[in-house]
Amino acid sequence: MTTRTVPNVIAGLDAGTATPLALLDVFNPATGAVIAKVPMSGAGEVDLAVREARAAFPAWAATPIKERVQVFYRYKALLEQHIDELTALVTEENGKIASEARAEVLKSAELTEFACSLPQIVTGEVLEVSRGVECRVERFPLGVVAAIAPFNFPNMVPHWSIPNALALGNTMILKPSELVPLSATRIAELLREAGLPDGVLQVVNGGQEAVEAVCDHPGIAAVSFVGSTRVAQIVYRRATSHLKRCLALGGAKNHLIVMPDADLEMASSNIVASMSGCAGQRCMAASVMLAVQDVDHIIARQHGGKTEAENLEADCACPEDVARGAHDRREPSVLHLLSRRAVGARDGIRVPGAQWGHASSRRSSIHRGGCGTSMSCGPSLSSMMPLWRPSNSGSTSRPC
């Protein structure tokens, strides 16, 4: 079977590249199968995208905002019309269970709906400060802007930037994660179908070299980034050193505090959902639970009876890790805890497979070749253990 190659989308077309590029395999996390290949673009491809975006900017910026948002009214309808297809695409490349993937696409439609209201939000202001003297507030688009999106929300996070930036008259370059490039290509196709002029949105695939080129290019006025804290700091420093506006959102380490008088059903369900939703690969995942006094009955509820954990497993077993790298980063942390006797079989831990290509023993017959990591629960974490310290979303198993 021929494996498709994900194109860069420049000036509305599947674009060639300035030079022959290396191709990176894109995996289905549930099976480990290669589903596509993505070009690792560099400075040449970014420069081509910037030139096309700058050429499209004058006409797009001169279009009245009420006309620009008509594109997004139509685009929102297309998102809803194609929601099953877009949901399946997120599941295929990211590994989310169907319900979580669908919720992501619905959130994208909601973000697009907000952009449709911008004509009422960004109106100018006029203040008469004295006779014959007025103060006016007017807003103008910046020009070419860029968004660097992460792997964990391939459909939703690009919509944090695309609808607003374009509706406000900017042109844009989207650099999706090279691990999940399929959704970005489909987003560009649907926007073109909705009437977005060619050149207003470019999609440039790639890794570190493409990100560095986006940060350095003098033709890009602003950069948004979502990803790990470490890379967010690098992107922020690099982009602002070139006098660009930059919004860089990093990861988090979130803690739940459970009191002994907590509602049993609500607490046990919410703890597991917060910890394991999207496989813990989101910045607001509650990765550590701090138990206050006697909460053993709540902990026990997470392992027995009909819990949220079982509901997750019933829906495609449980969320998958997104990539070989995420799986390989999680596994040593869990094995380290086991070696330190921080957790044990009596606490209900399920250890992921020892090597790439094997899911946990309970699920290997269903997802043979995938890179799933089952949930882990255990008490008595030390502040010196890797799981306690700050980490990227999805980089370690999430204890509770």
Number of strands: 14
Classify the fold: give the CATH topology of the domain at 4-249: Aldehyde Dehydrogenase, Chain A, domain 1
Strand percent estimate = 15-25%
Biggest beta-sheet profile = 5 strands, parallel
Descriptive tags:
400 residues; alpha/beta; Aldehyde Dehydrogenase, Chain A, domain 1; three-stranded mixed β-sheet; 14 strands; 16% strand; disordered C terminus
Question: Can you describe what's shown?
Answer:
- There is one protein chain.
- By secondary structure, this protein is α/β, with parallel strands linked by helices.
- The protein has a domain at about 5-250: Aldehyde Dehydrogenase, Chain A, domain 1, CATH 3.40.605.
- About 40% of the residues lie in helices and about 15% in strands.
- It is built from 13 helices and 14 strands.
- The protein has a five-stranded parallel beta sheet, with helices on both faces.
- The protein starts with a strand and ends in a 61-residue tail after the last helix.
Summarize the structure.
Helix content is 40%, strand content 16%. The protein has 400 residues and is of the alpha/beta class.
